[in-house]
Amino acid sequence: MTIHLFRIVASVALALGLVANFGCSSAHVNEVSIHEPRSSRFTFEKSWARQTTASPYYGYRINHVSQPVIVGKVVIQGNEIDGVTAYDKKSSHIKWRRYISGGVTADIAVKNKVIYFGAGDGFFYALDVETGTTRWSFPIRSEGIGAPLVTDDAVYFLTGTNSAYALNAETGTQIWFYNRQDSNSLTVRGASEPTIYKNRVYIGFSDGYLVALDKDKGALVWEKQLSSGQRFRDVDSKPVLDNGRLFVSSYDGQLFCVNAENGQTIWNHDEGGFLPVTIEGDTLYYSTSTRKMQALDKNSGKVIWSVDLPNTVGSQPVVYRGLLVFGEWSGRLRAFDMRTGEPVTSFITGRGVTSRVTYDSELDRLYVMTLDANLFSLRLRHKPLVERQPWEI
Prior knowledge:
Strand content: 35-45%
Oligomer: single chain
Structural class: mainly beta
């Protein structure tokens, strides 16, 4: 109980921008101001917005971080209050709603017309995409705060008690279980999404370690300490695989590039984080726990540009039409020039954007979840440059 209380406090403090900065800052090639240009070729336009809770919520602040999921003609969204809902992605009409006590905290995975997720009621679920009915459920006896990874045969995930599971994707039968003990009760409320490479599963834990497990048996292959901090040493980010290398960060530590075969460090960058990096070509985009958005050379870790985010942290960025799009947890949805870090346009959703942006290529729309549990469908439009008057220059 103490662990979960501290996780909630840490999560709220993080969203409010009150958690202290940890670690040292790197030398930056390009420091960019967050102020937007007064003229822009792009603008976000709202297609629709829906409150995802079944009834108004007036309790304490909750970070609804579950990313919208597009499946055919619907967008599926979980909230941390009362469950998960499927909406017609064009009209926003409700297709089905599934009530779950404690709601859905982590991202939802989809495979073969089934959605998979951990929930706040202590169960891990597999639901039918078309109806929301239960295919199977598995008791994890803790919060399901880790995003799952689903293959043809199995689903892998981490719970709020540092317990990693592999379950049969069709039946929910347990294949293996792996657990680590963490003596530090003060942790960030999150859990690493697993990554698979060859015959190994890679997962980060709240004790500051990245581990490689045998995919079929769950046996430990190697472990690497990424943080020895006395406070938030969590490794909550998904290890991102690229050409045999893993990119993963600890909250109050550093971003690491390591060899996936043996865990040896290739390079490290002195900024902590808790979200996955985004890789596009030779550039790595990174939202730090020290309230920055950065672009790094993925081969060397050298900073290309860095932008300070005033009093907030950013969600994991996505690349869209040559722009870097991300949400501020206590701010706006923003779009930056991915080459320079210059701000291009933004959109106010309310009290902040807490999920990763989802792109739907069929309708050319973006979907985001907000701190108020509102699901937004947006378009990015071109608009003429506004001509400035002489006295405005």
